Amino acid sequence: MTPPLVSIEALSASSVREGGTPVLRDVSLTLERGEVRGLVGESGAGKSTIAKALLGILPETIRITGGWLRFEGRDLLTMPSGELRAMRGRDITLIPQDPQTALNPARTIEAQLTDGLRMKLGLRGTALHARAIELLEEVQIREPDRVLRSYPHQLSGGMRQRILIAAAFAPGPKLVVADEPTTALDVTVQKEILRLMRRMQERHGTAVIFVTHDLGVVAKVCDSVTLLYAGKVIEAGTTADVIERPQHAYTKALIAAGPRYDRPGQGLEPVPEAIFRQLRAELAGTAAKGAP
Ligand SMILES: Nc1ncnc2c1ncn2[C@@H]1O[C@H](COP(=O)(O)OP(=O)(O)OP(=O)(O)O)[C@@H](O)[C@H]1O
């Protein structure tokens, strides 16, 4: 039987910097080929830690204390670093949060876009240039020749994010990790970028881990969702199930808190303090269960 594309089993991690504070608590999730899964939670929930673990770029100050992280059945945590490096940027790519800082201000778009194509796909010369043009056309950038000659500061945030999306899909990856790819953009541009991401994902059949704090974004682009709080999975399922029939009080409160793309103007209730008390009690229960 083919293993899922990504399989995370009982993954636990702690922060060395914060005196051993748990960062992930027994997190399990799977991602099938072509599936788009939202990883949702507020700041500090552990979303980026999971994303970084998948890309093999966890900082030394975060230590994995248990569990498995498999990609096509192979454990990424024990994979030799050379293999992991070869896989990163080819089989697993990243769309970063902030298009402003992700691009080098001193190099043209063409120089940056073609780096990956040269290294990962071995393209050279006119074939390289032609592929760069094609990529920009695919993300609906007009005048791609001019854009390739530009420097990042000459382009808008939305244009820069389109370029990073093109770069992430260029090597034909099996998995794209999108780390809050629309947070730094204004609302109208956000919607365009979400539509573009979904179109690219469908066209290429790529699986996506979509990191976001916004359930509205999940409703728009994700097939499934895993909701985290303080490193623990609170609720997971298909997007339709979780949004239409949330089981946990925290999920219900987040949905009420909005913003909801499908119900503009509704919501915006803050999450009640009683729900955070309940979450903290549940976390204390987890810690007690895990203790020797
Ligand atoms: N480099 C690091 N070293 C040690 N601990 C870290 C590091 N980065 C984050 N942490 C801790 O790990 C926990 C989870 O952080 P993480 O960045 O994964 O959350 P997040 O859900 O992605 O939040 P955000 O939306 O703010 O990015 C937090 O308690 C944080 O303090």
Automatic annotation (TrEMBL):
Could you give a GO molecular-function term held by this entry? Answer: ATP hydrolysis activity
PROSITE patterns cross-referenced by the UniProt entry: ABC_TRANSPORTER_1, ABC_TRANSPORTER_2
Lineage, top-rank taxon, reads Bacteria
**Locations listed in the record:** Cell inner membrane
Its GO CC terms are: plasma membrane
Which Pfam families does the protein's record reference? ABC_tran, oligo_HPY
Q: Which family does it belong to?
A: Belongs to the ABC transporter superfamily.
* Protein name (record): Peptide/nickel transport system ATP-binding protein
Name the species this protein comes from. Answer: Kaistia hirudinis
Tell me the lineage of the source organism. Answer: Bacteria, Pseudomonadati, Pseudomonadota, Alphaproteobacteria, Hyphomicrobiales
